[in-house]
Structure prediction request, 156 residues.
Amino acid sequence: MDIILWRHAEAEDGFPDLTRKLTPKGELQAANMANWLKQHMPANIRILVSPATRTQQTASALGLEFTTVDALAPGASPQALLEAADWPLGKESVLIIGHQPTLGMAAAYAMTRRLQYWSVKKGAIWWIANRRRGEEEQIVLRAMVTPELVAPSQHD
Prediction:
């Protein structure tokens, strides 16, 4: 099973938190990462998104259907995130678009089985795979990509 954790792109400051929108820079980050994801992610992936406006806008950049999951809202626990994804026992790949610190803590737990505060940069993805080789379960970091790495070259 693959789980891709995508932190929403850069958003405006302000309140209420759930209605914060992406900045113009954030819209560009989301579009660039969406283009990269569409080229690399599995075809039949389940997409789960926080109800916050900024995550909804980030998800919309993909142009694919997604499911809004209230349990992924800001302040969600890493356990709730991993349960929503059915990690590590699920049969299908999942893309989750959410928030810090939940995403970083979920990545840490998925990879080490320990809750730690790992930082996921705005607009970045962490792609983690769970596989079995014989009797051994293996966790693999398939990719960690920031928006800057997938931005179109300014020299073209």
